[in-house]
Amino acid sequence: MWISKNCLLPTWVLASVVAADAFIPVSGLHRNSKSIASNFLPLSTTGSCRLKSIETSGKDEDSFAEEIPRGGSSVLKDKPPALPTWKDYRKFAIPCLALWVANPLLSLVDTSFVGLSAGAAESATQLAALGPATTFFDGATYLFAFLNVATTNLYSSAIAQKGEASDQAEAVVTTASRVALRCGIGIMLFLWAFARPLLALYIGTYRIVLYCIGFYSLLDSAVAYVKIRAFSLPTSLLLGVLQSALLGAKDSVTPLIAILYSTVVNLIGDFLLVKIFGMGLRGAAIATLVAQLAATAALLGPARKRLVRDGSLRLWKKKTIVTANGDDSVVGGKAFLGFAAPVLTLILGKLAAFGFMTHSAAAVPGQPTSLACHQILLSLFFFVSPFMEVISQTAQTFIPPYLAPVTDYLGFVVATVVASLASLIPAYFGGILTSDTVVTNSVKPLAKYLWAGAFLTAPVAVAEGILLARRELKFLAGVYL
After folding, report:
1. Do 104 and 385 contact (CB within 8 A), yes or no?
2. pLDDT tens-digit readout, 115-143
3. φ and ψ at 143, to 5 degrees?
4. Rounded to whole angstroms, how far apart are CA atoms 106 and 229?
5. CB 242 within 8 A of CB 300
6. Is residue 40 domain-resident?
7. Quick one: pLDDT at residue 389?
8. What is the membrane topology listed in the Swiss-Prot or TrEMBL record (predicted)?
9. What SS3 string covers 286-339?
10. Number of separate domains in the chain
11. In-domain check, residue 126
12. Which contacts (CB < 8 Å, 24+ apart) does range 350-353 have?
């Protein structure tokens, strides 16, 4: 039973403290170590015992799959590289967090502008259309997230083996850029051709018609939103792989600057098109489209200077590389395909879960209130998820050169804090996302489920990051089958 409003806030704070305390070992709070990994390593600093990966037998090294390099050098040195310190993690993770939060924040801004700019009745209808549209579009984009995962891992491995200014590292960037642009053009044309029937199937036409007389109006708005956003897909996928390459190079500041441009453009666009000109969903879609184009334009120049020596990404024609020693280890398209099937299985498993939730929300009586509540909760959940995903990204970036242990309770601490803060919004401050009091009251009891979902995302994100860094792709894919 939902606790009374006066008692909820202190109860929430107490629950958060208890949850955090349950996962933080006392020794972890008092240990004055220079690095996370030192919590798990013996005091000796010799090369044979500094890393768990080096302590393993030679047969463990031989068991590593050769199709996709696992990072680092195939020949272990007497002295492994120094382990990253807390400062190294902070310098990378904090800008990376802002980078991960940016896109969900843009969706949350769209939700807020659309929900508050219309009247009470129209607000619920607009939010009901925005929910399936954003989930469907983000899902279509998410299918190509394997490009980002592959780029970060392969680029980290290439610079660990050959150095940043090497043909191998540049080949990862140019191949990823070329594949991303072509995939973006393909999915853009696909959405333009099939957005309407797929959205109708995604929402569940036969159920909506029974509960919502304005179904076709809702569908028209959602289709228009998706088609406008589809124009950004080629540059959006290109932006993703360039960001991933820079993150693989442990540069999280340059992508952050580009995202700041995007955020400013999106805020101005939403204010003008949605608030001032009253364009509703179409205005929100145009604002987000222009914002993504601005981010790509801002990142393209610095990325070309940093990642490729001749400044050319070779988006249409592959560069022929002939090494002096006959080394044929330059990364090509096949290396990216090695990530495709396992990572796509992971992604499709997640998309299926969110798709079923949206379909179920559309089947609940009392539309469009139910879909509007679903959109608010989903936007908040996607906003919270990056706080855990940044730990996954940090693991993927730092682990390839050497297998460093990671603090096992860090994700739970982050999850406890952000889950508590995010779930307070539907519980107390729903009015900042919609002007419809019915939606505000309906979403309030769902806050506890948002807290649970966000909190349980932490161990999943941390485990995924380590498994992806170790290239345990088959095992990871099997989890989502």
Report:
1. yes
2. 787 766 677 778 778 878 887 888 788 78
3. -60, -25
4. 13
5. yes
6. no
7. 72
8. Multi-pass membrane protein
9. HHHHHHHHHHHHHHHHHHHHHHCCCCCCCCCCCCCCCCCCCCCCCCCHHHHHHH
10. 1
11. yes
12. 350/142, 350/480, 351/139, 351/142, 351/143
Q: Per the domain annotation, does 440 fall within a domain?
A: no
Token code pair at residue 389 = 């995903």
Which pTM was predicted?
0.64
CA-atom Rg of the chain in angstroms: 23
- In whole angstroms, give the CA distance from residue 101 to residue 82: 30
At 287-323, the pLDDT tens digits run: 999 999 999 999 998 988 888 888 778 777 666 554 4
| Cα dist from 187 to 18, 182, 317, 358, whole Å | 46, 9, 20, 22
List the structure tokens of 27: 């020794």
Q: Which residue range(s) make up the domain with 293? A: 82-407+467-479
CA within 13 Å, CB half, 212: 28
In a domain, 423, yes or no: no
Which region holds residue 471: left if phi is over 0, alpha if psi is between -120 and 50, else beta?
A: left
Which pLDDT band holds residue 468 (cuts at 50, 70, 90)? confident
Cα 90 from chain centroid (whole Å) = 19
- What is the token pair recorded at 103? 């896109």
Q: Any residues with CB less than 8 A from the CB of 367 and at least 6 apart, and which?
A: 128, 208, 211, 212
